[in-house]
Amino acid sequence: MENEKEELTATRAPNSATLEDIVVPALCWSPLAEGLEGTVGEAEELVELLVWLVGAATTLWLALWADVDETSMNIATRRRAKRKAFDNRNMLLNASTALLSPKILLVPYEPHHVLTYNSWMQDEEIREATASERLTLGQEYQMQRSWRNDADKLTFILCLPPATTRDLFTNPEATIIAQQDDAPQQMIGDINLFLSEDSDSEYGCGSECMHTGKRRLVGELEVMIARKEYQEQGFGRAAVLLFLWYIVMRKDEVVAAYEGQESVLTYMSVKIHQGNERSIGLFRSLGFKKKLETPNYFGEFELVLKDLDVVRMFGLLKTYGLEGCKGLPYEYK
Q1: Tens of pLDDT, residues 132-177
Q2: Where are the alpha helices (DSSP H) in the chain?
Q3: 48-88 pLDDT per residue, tens
Q4: Nearby residues of 250 by Cβ (< 8 Å), 6 or more positions away
Q5: What's the CA gap between 283 and 304, in Å, rounded?
Q6: How far is CA 292 from CA 113, 231, 289, 303, in A?
Q7: Backbone angles phi, psi at 314, to 5 degrees
Q8: Which of 162, 256, 299, 317 minimizes the number of CB atoms within 10 Å of its CB?
Q9: Tell me, what's the pLDDT at 201?
Q10: Per DSSP, what are the bridge partners of residue 329?
Q11: Separation of alpha carbons 178 and 175, rounded Å
Q12: Is the pLDDT of residue 314 over 60?
């Protein structure tokens, strides 16, 4: 028994005092140990007793609080670690991957892109077209971290393809160099995916939803060609096709463990202002269809794509001369 006590004492944290550690020594000198005959009615003795009781209770509370606080901190640490692991497993999926087609390059949204991106968003026409608010540079950096780390988001910066694109397709060791292949003069826009629960029973996921217990998700797309000199030149279509190719090819990974629950992607969606006929035409050319023939309260049409088939996606890439899409390592030198 004594050995067991020694082991317990050795493993106990210095601040993890027990009720026995505090109360028993205190009772040795307290008025209770000496007896209170004839003193209970005396104010001085009563005050002394109350002061001692308050002190003992406070000491005990502090000791117990230390244990509880330490335990709470451990729980919080575990939760943060679990959340970090979850985030890393989700939309950090593209943290070191670039996508290349003969027409366009997609790279992960990094801090060195923020200054250029923020300058684009000072344009009132762009903000209106994207339903965005003007942000300070500090707020833009916060938004960048959100888009890069949140489990329900996936984003790429759109860039002109490198001059060495032909070599990148043929060289098995090829990489995209951060801050070189995506320097500010190469950047032309961005494309995003936002995952949310599918609450519209009319747009089901067909046979895939036969897998019971899976949460149904819808992926909302946003694309922007910010630099006016590159608008209406096919870069928007090229970006959407390359992005859809990536999502369809890695669909299970994109939705993996969404908010801790197995999920399935039901369809893709895009919301476009009714006056933006150019964008509506772009998405309709890729098979998106209007959900309703009338715009919503915000004057937007929602277009959806339910057919997330790999063969169909390769057919679209061939139709628009974008065969040979490739994922490449994205690295800093």
Answers
A1: 889 999 999 999 988 877 878 899 999 999 988 888 888 889 999 9
A2: 2-11, 19-29, 31-34, 43-89, 114-120, 124-130, 137-149, 165-170, 235-249, 251-254, 277-285, 310-319
A3: 555 556 555 554 544 444 443 443 334 333 333 333 333 34
A4: 93
A5: 9
A6: 37, 27, 9, 8
A7: -65, -35
A8: 299
A9: 56
A10: 97
A11: 9
A12: yes
List residues bridging with 157 in a β-sheet: 107, 190
pLDDT tens column, 90-135: 456 788 999 999 999 999 999 999 999 999 999 998 888 888 889 9
Complete edge-to-edge strand list for the sheet that includes strand 300-305: 176-177, 326-331, 97-100, 105-108, 153-159, 187-197, 215-225, 263-273, 300-305, 289-290
DSSP symbols for 203-223: S--GGGGGSTTPEEEEEEEEE
Half-sphere exposure of 310 (CA within 13 A, CB side): 6
* Distance, CA of 149 to chain centre: 4
Residue type, 178: A
Token code pair at residue 38: 């004839």
For residue 325, give both structure tokens: 């899409």
Looking at residue 92, what is its pLDDT?
65
